[in-house]
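Fold this sequence, please.
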Amino acid sequence: MSSSHTTELTEQLVKDYANYAKVDWDNQMKNFRDIVEDTLIRLEEFQSIVTMVENGSAECIQQQLPKLQYMKDGMTSLCRRIDALEHVVAMANMNLSSLEAAVDKAEAELGVSDRLFGILNPLSFFKKTQEPVVSSTVPMYKSPVIYKSDDYFQRE
């Protein structure tokens, strides 16, 4: 082979292989740029949402925390009053039970039926009927100790 022929053949081979090396970087990088740009937009949106949430929570804390601190003493007082009321209800229940027991005992000792107390106490309808007991002695009635609301609640 001649050197000119080899040179032609080499030049042709270089041209053929050069076509393989040619890359359209603009088209290839366009997709990459679009993906990067879309990711940056999403990151900016996320950052703005996070900033809004932080500002909203800070604003909420700044507005609501003083209100909660202001209401703390009132809530503590209300809790104490509710506890006192529960205690009063429990004491009233105990006193009512002891009063009912004393009335039942007095009725049994005096031989009186439930009719008089039954008129005053509508719940006596649900009581079991008792046989009147005749007693030879007349007992002294002693009233049970009953609570006073002043013992539990201070006057305001």
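The mean pLDDT is 78. The helical segments are 3-21, 25-110, 115-120.
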